[in-house]
Every structure is written in structure tokens, then in C-alpha cells.
Specification:
The complex is a heterodimer. Chain A is mainly α. Chain A is 73% helix and 1% strand. A two-stranded antiparallel sheet of chain A has the order 1-2. Chain B is mostly helical. Helix content of chain B is 69%, strand content 0%. Chain B contains 14 helices and no strands. In chain B, α3 runs antiparallel to α10, α7 packs across α14 and α10 packs across α14. Classes of the chains: A mainly alpha, B mainly alpha.
């Protein structure tokens, strides 16, 4: 008794110690990062200042008139490009052209802070807070692109100083263009991709993150009622434990985690077993079996899942079968609003097996063929039988090498949209559930809230929380994966 | 039980017997699983050709419990072609898929090549930003994308859909990058010594040997538009069925615009599904080798 008490005590102190250690390390890391950032900023300013004083006259003028350094050294086209960018930028910023009755440019920055002030009446339309927010972000984006060009202009001019000093020839425009296909090929290749990512991924993501800090919801439709910044109010609402949304948040979150856990591990285990079965030496027609399962991957999910849904419906063939066999006396409601919560949840997890097993089978098939042969040889020399070889070699190897996949598929299941949306649509519904049914995952809930209900701010908060969940998982997987560790060794 | 397979008593006969028995069990398991996995597909096909009429002589389109339809015919297909814009949807999807697969494949491969084989300052930074951006739920930003497109006057056009599908492809370079990482640098170095530019290396060395990954990327980006109904539905809207893709069209046909099911259109939906699924499945199966290669390389590398 006493002994155990002591044990407990040492256990607790050990835990406390390790927690303290963790926080200490965490604080140290934060400190180092902050130091690095501050030092970096100071260094940057010092460098900028020094460079300015060392630079030649044309380069100094380049700080004010972009492209002057290039023009003075007869790089006409490049210099004019810089100059036009500067003029264009200043023109947009000062005149603030109006698109969709909302200005972009300097005025957009003010609107970005106020999110509109004009309450509409019969003659004047209300300010569109949503567009003002969007254009604010766009303007900030334009400003940062401009500054990037500005610094590249200075760099280019200073570089010309050096070239002239060392007595080399200034590159012609033609040579610059040729450079874009060789030493600066990465710029040519990345530009279209970056433009695409910035416009259709980065910009919308920033915009939606900002929405989480406003009261943009169904009560404040854009262009009809103004909305405003509310700080962390939406986050508080979700966690206060009283508002309608916070009452539903924890249940949805926990079901999401339960779903992700069962969906991941059931498919993982069953998929590996199937792969082992197909790869068995005595089984013939491996390619045929594999093709059968690949076929289900190939069929668009909106087709296959809706088919499964109708097969399981009240008057579908499965219920018919169950009734003829005599297992049930009336149709089982597998999915749909009148279903019990447990039935619906088990059904979606089981149907997910149908979707997920082929994937895992494909993944692990490749791995199984690559189990290092010398491992087996060593084991047989040591006198291991087949089962032992499997339990001690194949299994640990598979588990070891598929751990990143396991984590990625867990993360994938947290955000798996199609299965829930197409099978149940979140049903069975929960009264007063803030639109969240009992099988709704965070992502399907978020979709309903934004697309169907226009509760954009709440949707954004949920998206951010989902992101935190998935990001943590993915970062762990990424750091564990061979790809990350060997990233440099490959090079 | 005849389980005499322990190391101590390896009777040859019984080992062979259990071996054979486990093989038979294996075949049975595989057969049963194949039936379960293929059943929904068979069922959709049967329903597509189902031609049963009610007392008023109207085609019954709802789900019925028969395992095998009482009569077969092409009525669902003719109905689909006559009462909906299905041929238009099909051509729309083909159009969108073709363009977005050309653009996406090119973008993905070029980003992957740059990230894998070229050295430049902000390379690591770009990799990390791409990784983090890829983690935001895609349709979280769909509203913002919708309004950006609206500001560009592009909503309800197929062009917008092509833009959206191919714009994100710059982020999906990880699998292709893993492929390029394995290409030995010495190959590129020797070409560089011979005076080849990076562009020439990409065009004449990298592209020819990256056929598997090119096909994998192309396959995924070509089939994507046939499967997606989330982005497409928001961007194209539900009202104008002229510009729908097959996924949006069939889904809206079945669910109406108020997300209430029109159960009598199920067999028509099945008919459309068959037409959509045949080319995609054929494509997948013929490119199986490349698909498996791409998927598994992604799994092992994480």
C-alpha cells in the first residue's frame, strides 16, 4: 500500500517535471524565434540604409523613380517596365477605381478598417461590407507585390553598379530573357502557378480567416446590412458553453474524432488483410482481383455513394433481402431522418469500408512486394516459421512504413466530405441543432452553415478550428515521414 | 481440427491439406468481397436499363426492391436525352476536363521540377507555405472564390471552372516532386556541362522520362471535373442547366434545387451515371499501372 503510494507520488512528480520541461523548452523556442525576428528586422533596415549610401547616383534615384538605374544604363525595356509598374501602382492607389460600386486602392484601405459606413436608403445603396473587406485584402496584396517589385528594382540597379565597377558588360534585354530560361528558370516556371495560388487559394483563405472576426452572418447580408469587426467574439461564442452553437460544437467535434478513428483504423486493418490475401502465393488472378477493387475507386463518388444509399433505402433490395430471409419484420432505416443515431453512424462507418478498403489495399500492395528479402532469409536461417516471420517481420515493417499514411488518412477522414454529405446529409437531425445533424462532421457542418445558411462567420471559425486539427496531424506525419528526413540527402 | 502446422510436427500431407484449405477460404473471401464491391455497380447498370411501367403507362423511376428488373429497354436513356440537357452537360464536362487537365498537368510538373531540381533562395519557404495552404479545407474559401470570380464577371461560366480547377494545381506537386527527386542529379549535371539551359533540360531530359508521373497527374486532373459537384455547383449555380457539368446536372436533377429528392428520376440518374462512368472507368483501368505507381509512391513518402 505504502509502496504504491510512493510510486504514485514519484509518478506525479515525474509528470509535473516533464510538463515543466516541455513548457520551458517551448518558452525557449518562442524566445529564440522572437529574437530572430527582431534581429532580422533591425539587420534589414541597417542593410537597406548602408546600401543606399554606398550606391551610385542612378541607384539612389532608383529608390524614388523606379527603373531609373536601368534606364541610365541603357536597359530600356526593363527600366520602362519598372517605371510603368510604379506609375500604375500610384495611379490605382490614388484614384481608387471603382469595381462593383466598391473602390479598390487607397480608399479600400480605409474601408478595410471601417467595413463601410453608409447605411442605405431608397436613393443610396448600402455599402457592401463584404466587397470592402475583399478589396481591402486585394489592395494589401497589390501593395506587397509592389514592394517586392520595388526592392527587386533597387537590387537590379545596385547589381548594375557592381557590374560596371568590375568592368563587365551590361546585360541586354535579350540576354535577360534568355536568363529566364536558364539561371532564373524557376521564376518563369513558378510565376503562373504562384499567380493561380495567390488568387484562388491564398487570397480566399486570408479573406475567410478575416471573416471569422466579423459579424457577417445571415442577419447581415452583404450589400443590404453593414457588418463590422467583432474581434474574438465568434470564438468566445463557440466555447462559452451556453449559446446554441457551442452546445452543438463539442458533440460534432467528438463525433468527427470518433468517425476519423474508426474510419481510419477499420479501413487500414481490413485493407492490409485484403492486400495480404491477394498477394498470397497460392492465389491466382492477382491482377483480376485488384482490378475489381480499383474499379470502385474509378467510379465518381456521387454515383457510387448515391447507388449505395438507394440500395440501403427503405424499399431497396437490401431491406427486401433481410425481410425475405426473415431477419427483420419491417424495413430497417439505415440512413435518413427517421433513423436512430447509432444505426446511421454505424452504417456510414461500414459504407466507408466499401470506399476505403480498395485504397489501403493499393497502398499496402506496393509495400508488401518491397519487404526486403534479406530480412526473410535471416529469419528462416534462425528457424522461424511462416507465422512468426509474418508477425515479426512483415507486420512491423508494414506498420513502420505506413505510419505516415495512417496519419494522413486520419487527417483525410476528419475532412472527408463526400461520404457524409452524399449518404446522410448529416441526418438524423437534431432539434435546435444549429443545422448540425448527428452524423455531420465539422466540414459538412461548415458547408451547410456557409452555403445553405449564410452564417459565414461561424463557418469560418469552424474552418479555422478544423485547420488547426488537420495541420497538427499533418505536421506530425510530415516530420515523421521519410520524405522530409531524406529531403536533403536526395539532393 | 487438422491444424498441425506447428514447427514440431510438420507432417507433409497435412501441411499441404491446410494450405489448400486456406487457399480455398481465400478464394471464397475474395469472391464474396468482389460481389459486395461490384453489387452497387451492377445495380446501377440494371436500373439504367429498367423499363417498368405503372397502371397509367408511365415509366417507374423510383427505387424498387426487385433484384432484377422485370423488363429492360432504353427508355431511361431516351428520357434523359429528351427531357434534360444531358448531352450539353457531357460536352461541357469534356471541355472543362480537357483544358484543366492540360493546364494542371503542365503546372504541377513545372512546379515539381523547380522544387526538386533547381536551387534558389526561397525554395524551402515556398515548400512550407504550400504545405500549410493545402491544409485549409478547400471549400472554406469557396465563398471568397465565388465573389472574386463575380468581381471578374466570370461566375456561371465554364471558363471560371477551368480557372478554379487548374489554379490550385500548383499546390499538388508533392507526388511529382517525389518522382523527380529520384532522378539522379548527375544526369542533369552532365547536360549542363554540355551547355544545356535549364529549360532545355526540362524539355529534353526531364519530360521524356517522366511519362508515368505525367500520366498520373493528367489522369487525376482529367477525371476531377467529372466527379466534383461541390465547387461546380457553387460556381455554376443551380438555375441555368445549360452550363452544368455532368455531376452538377445529374445531382440537381435528382435532388431538385431545394435538396428534396425527386425519387421518380432515379432510373434516369442511373442511365446518366452509366454514360459518365464508362469512359472514366475505362480510362482508369487502362492507366491502372500509372495510377497505382503514383498512389503508392505518395504513400511511402508520406
Amino acid at each position: 500500500m505504502n509502496n504504491q503510494h510512493n510510486n504514485n507520488q514519484s509518478m506525479i512528480s515525474w509528470m509535473l517535471e516533464s510538463i515543466l520541461k516541455f513548457f520551458k523548452r517551448f518558452a525557449q523556442r518562442i524566445y529564440h524565434i522572437c529574437k530572430k525576428i527582431v534581429c532580422g528586422i533591425v539587420d534589414w533596415f541597417v542593410n537597406f540604409y548602408q546600401r543606399f549610401f554606398k550606391a551610385s547616383i542612378p541607384s539612389k534615384i532608383s529608390h524614388l523613380v523606379m527603373g531609373y538605374g536601368n534606364l541610365a544604363r541603357k536597359q530600356i525595356v526593363k527600366g520602362l517596365l519598372y517605371l510603368f509598374i510604379e506609375i500604375g501602382f500610384l495611379f490605382v492607389m490614388i484614384t481608387s477605381p471603382i469595381i462593383n460600386s466598391t473602390p479598390i486602392g487607397f480608399k479600400a484601405l480605409i474601408n478595410f478598417i471601417t467595413l463601410g459606413t453608409l447605411e442605405g436608403d431608397i436613393f443610396n445603396p448600402t455599402d457592401n461590407s463584404m466587397l470592402m473587406l475583399l478589396f481591402g485584402v486585394v489592395t494589401l496584396g497589390i501593395i506587397s507585390v509592389f514592394f517586392a517589385t520595388y526592392f527587386s528594382n533597387i537590387k537590379s540597379s545596385v547589381h548594375l553598379d557592381d557590374v560596371l565597377k568590375s568592368g563587365k558588360k551590361v546585360a541586354t534585354f535579350k540576354e535577360d530573357l534568355a536568363d529566364l530560361l536558364d539561371s532564373r528558370f524557376h521564376i518563369t516556371m513558378l510565376t503562373p502557378a504562384i499567380i493561380g495560388i495567390v488568387t484562388f487559394t491564398l487570397l480566399p483563405t486570408i479573406f475567410m480567416i478575416l471573416i471569422a472576426f466579423t459579424n457577417f452572418d445571415s442577419q447581415h447580408p452583404a450589400g443590404q446590412v453593414l457588418f463590422d469587426w467583432v474581434g474574438f467574439q465568434n470564438f468566445k461564442n463557440i466555447f462559452d458553453g451556453q449559446s446554441e452553437i457551442s452546445v452543438r460544437f463539442l458533440p460534432v467535434l467528438s463525433w468527427t474524432m470518433i468517425w476519423a478513428f474508426f474510419a481510419t483504423f477499420s479501413c487500414y486493418i481490413a485493407g492490409i488483410l485484403l492486400a495480404l490475401l491477394i498477394n498470397k502465393k497460392t492465389i491466382k488472378g492477382k491482377k483480376l482481383w485488384r482490378t475489381v477493387f480499383i474499379m470502385t475507386i474509378a467510379i465518381p463518388q456521387f454515383i457510387s455513394l448515391l447507388a449505395v444509399r438507394s440500395i440501403l433505402s427503405e424499399y431497396g433490395p437490401i431491406n427486401n433481402l433481410l425481410m425475405t430471409v426473415g431477419l427483420v419484420s419491417e424495413p430497417v432505416k439505415f440512413l435518413g431522418t427517421a433513423t436512430s443515431v447509432l444505426t446511421a453512424r454505424i452504417t456510414v462507418i461500414v459504407i466507408n469500408l466499401w470506399v476505403g478498403i480498395p485504397f489501403t489495399m493499393l497502398m499496402t500492395s506496393g509495400i508488401l512486394m518491397n519487404v526486403p528479402a534479406d530480412l526473410y532469409e535471416a529469419a528462416t536461417i534462425d528457424g522461424a516459421n511462416k507465422r512468426q516471420a509474418f508477425m515479426n517481420i512483415t507486420m512491423p515493417y508494414i506498420v513502420f512504413i505506413t505510419t505516415p499514411y495512417l496519419i494522413t488518412s486520419f487527417v483525410g477522414n476528419i475532412t472527408s466530405f463526400n461520404i457524409i454529405y452524399l449518404l446522410t446529409g448529416g441526418a438524423p437531425t437534431v432539434s435546435g441543432g444549429y443545422k448540425a445533424g448527428s452524423t455531420d462532421l465539422l466540414v459538412t457542418w461548415l458547408y451547410k452553415l456557409t452555403i445553405d445558411e449564410n452564417e459565414y462567420n461561424v463557418g469560418s471559425v469552424i474552418a479555422i478550428l478544423t485547420f488547426i486539427l488537420t495541420a497538427t496531424g499533418t505536421l506530425i506525419a510530415y516530420r515523421k515521414s521519410k520524405a522530409y528526413k531524406e529531403e536533403e540527402t536526395f539532393q | 481440427m487438422m491444424k498441425n502446422t506447428t514447427v514440431n510436427a510438420p507432417k507433409f500431407q497435412s501441411v499441404k491439406k491446410t494450405e489448400r484449405r486456406s487457399t480455398i477460404i481465400g478464394y471464397i473471401t475474395l469472391a464474396v468481397m468482389s460481389i459486395i464491391w461490384l453489387y452497387p455497380i451492377v445495380w446501377i447498370i440494371l436500373n439504367a436499363f429498367r423499363t417498368e411501367f405503372n397502371d397509367q403507362g408511365q415509366l417507374i423511376g423510383i427505387v424498387v426492391s426487385n433484384y432484377i428488373p422485370k423488363a429492360f429497354g432504353f427508355d431511361n436513356f431516351t428520357n434523359l436525352f429528351n427531357t434534360t440537357n444531358f448531352p450539353k452537360w457531357f460536352m461541357n464536362t469534356l471541355f472543362v476536363a480537357t483544358f484543366s487537365f492540360i493546364i494542371s498537368t503542365f503546372m504541377t510538373l513545372s512546379v515539381a521540377y523547380v522544387m526538386s531540381k533547381l536551387k534558389f533562395n526561397s525554395r524551402k519557404k515556398f515548400l512550407n507555405v504550400a504545405l500549410i495552404l493545402g491544409l485549409f479545407p478547400g471549400f472554406m474559401s469557396i465563398i471568397a472564390i465565388y465573389y472574386i470570380l463575380k468581381a471578374m464577371n466570370l461566375t456561371q461560366t465554364l471558363f471560371a471552372l477551368i480557372l478554379v480547377y487548374s489554379a490550385g494545381s500548383g499546390l499538388g506537386f508533392y507526388v511529382a516532386k517525389g518522382f523527380f527527386d529520384i532522378i539522379p542529379n548527375s544526369l542533369l549535371e552532365s547536360a549542363r556541362l554540355d551547355g544545356a539551359t535549364n529549360f532545355q533540360i526540362f524539355l529534353k531530359i526531364i519530360l521524356p522520362i517522366s511519362k508515368p508521373i505525367m500520366i498520373y497527374t493528367a489522369l487525376l486532373s482529367f477525371t476531377g471535373p467529372w466527379m466534383d459537384f461541390i465547387f461546380a455547383r457553387v460556381i455554376l449555380g443551380e438555375t441555368n442547366s445549360e452550363i452544368h457539368t455532368v455531376a452538377v446536372g445529374l445531382y440537381t436533377m435528382l435532388y431538385g434545387s431545394q435538396s428534396t429528392v425527386d425519387p421518380n428520376r432515379f432510373t434516369m440518374f442511373a442511365a446518366g451515371s452509366v454514360i459518365v462512368a464508362i469512359p472514366i472507368v475505362a480510362l482508369f483501368l487502362s492507366m491502372q499501372k500509372y495510377y497505382i505507381e503514383g498512389v503508392t509512391s505518395g504513400a511511402v513518402k508520406g
